């Protein structure tokens, strides 16, 4: 029987954008029990309620699921198939231990195989463990899992869905954090969604005879956003792909009564995490009013409404914007009075109605 070293509950996690993968050469001691552990590193902000990663680490108290396959010494993970029999899954609670991972507790606990020819262990993970994510994990070639995913209709409740690259062919004396933590597995997580935000600014307008122009938003809606799809996850997350999502939803943006005296940036409630999708019928509707004050004190108000097809918005280079995995998009919408001085300036002209035909009258004086 092969000996097992306690695989300490320590795991390391890295979010894409700043991947740090180190291989250790620490030699194991057959008489020592070493638990497997997990740690985390998260370089870029993500989104969604209490799962939203705002900095370089996962959110304390949230769980990520770890799956693991045990296979023969010196065999390659790429050649394996089937369900993950070693961990299926272990649920790791993130407690801000991004180095040793000892503080990131999990259940059920597993230990590193030891001996002259110990089994190799290969790992896979996703974050967070949440009802919006329904996993089916079984290895078939390079494919590791499929995930049914649903975006919440409330932006504040959206789930920040991340999937890690597989960490394959690991041994206690060769894990991928550092020589100081030979029992710790470090995952590199990648954002699977598209982060979308909208900000608004007033148009730079100067009109003859007008002292001030002030626009105020009354309503903003994001329409036709598809919300249900399936992700296929592979050994390398760069190969992951979504089905085209379905089930269109409408989202209200919290911009009502925002006066555009300066750039109005999105609040946390108006950062959206959507499934990547082909832009077609998705659009933004904006309602606003513009108060115009003339130099002589006269005031008027214009009320406007516009519908903007998202597929028609171009980036700074004039290219179409696509919603892809791990892409962050900020749309800046310029709101104006709707007045074109070359068209809408009130002008005056006139014509004179000609005199009617003469009426002749005669009278004689004697």
Report on this model:
It is a single chain. This protein is mainly beta. It has one helix spanning 341-344; strands at 3-5, 10-15, 37-41, 63-71, 87-93, 106-107, 112-114, 120-127, 133-140, 143-150, 162-164, 167-170, 184-191, 194-202, 210-234, 241-242, 246-253, 258-259, 271-274, 283-294, 299-309, 327-335. Residues 1-33 and 41-48 have low confidence and may be disordered.
At a glance:
The protein has one helix at residues 341-344; strands at 3-5, 10-15, 37-41, 63-71, 87-93, 106-107, 112-114, 120-127, 133-140, 143-150, 162-164, 167-170, 184-191, 194-202, 210-234, 241-242, 246-253, 258-259, 271-274, 283-294, 299-309, 327-335.
């Amino acid at each position: 029987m092969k000996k097992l070293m306690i695989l300490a509950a320590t795991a390391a996690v890295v979010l894409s954008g700043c991947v740090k993968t180190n291989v250790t050469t620490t030699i194991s001691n057959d008489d020592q029990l070493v638990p497997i552990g997990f740690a985390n590193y998260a370089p870029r902000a993500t989104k969604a309620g209490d799962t939203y990663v705002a900095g370089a680490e996962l959110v304390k108290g949230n769980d990520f699921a770890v799956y693991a396959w045990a296979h023969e010494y010196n065999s390659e993970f790429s050649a394996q198939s089937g369900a993950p029999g070693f961990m299926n899954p272990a649920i790791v609670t993130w407690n801000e231990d991004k180095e040793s991972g000892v503080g990131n507790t999990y259940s059920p606990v597993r230990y590193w195989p030891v001996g002259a020819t110990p089994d190799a262990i290969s790992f896979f993970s996703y974050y967070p463990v949440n009802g919006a994510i329904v996993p089916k994990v079984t290895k078939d070639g390079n494919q590791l899992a499929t995930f049914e995913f649903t975006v919440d209709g409330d932006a504040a409740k959206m789930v920040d869905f991340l999937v890690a690259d597989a960490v394959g062919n690991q041994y206690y004396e060769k894990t991928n954090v550092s020589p100081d933590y030979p029992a710790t597995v470090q995952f590199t997580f990648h954002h699977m969604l598209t982060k979308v935000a909208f900000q608004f600014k007033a148009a730079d307008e100067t009109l003859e005879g007008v002292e001030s122009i002030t626009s105020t938003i009354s309503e903003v809606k994001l329409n036709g956003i598809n919300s249900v799809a399936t992700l296929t996850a592979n050994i390398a997350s760069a190969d992951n792909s979504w089905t085209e999502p379905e089930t269109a939803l409408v989202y209200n943006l919290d911009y009502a009564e925002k006066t555009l005296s300066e750039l109005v940036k999105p609040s946390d409630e108006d950062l959206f995490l959507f499934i990547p999708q082909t832009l077609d019928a998705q659009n933004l509707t904006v309602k606003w009013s513009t108060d115009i004050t003339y130099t002589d004190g006269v005031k008027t108000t214009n009320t406007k409404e516009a519908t903007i097809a998202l597929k028609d918005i171009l980036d700074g280079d004039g290219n179409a914007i696509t919603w892809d995995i791990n892409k962050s998009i900020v749309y800046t919408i310029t709101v104006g009075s709707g007045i074109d001085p070359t068209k809408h300036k009130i002008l005056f002209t006139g014509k004179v109605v000609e005199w009617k035909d003469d009426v002749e009258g005669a009278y004689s004086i004697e």
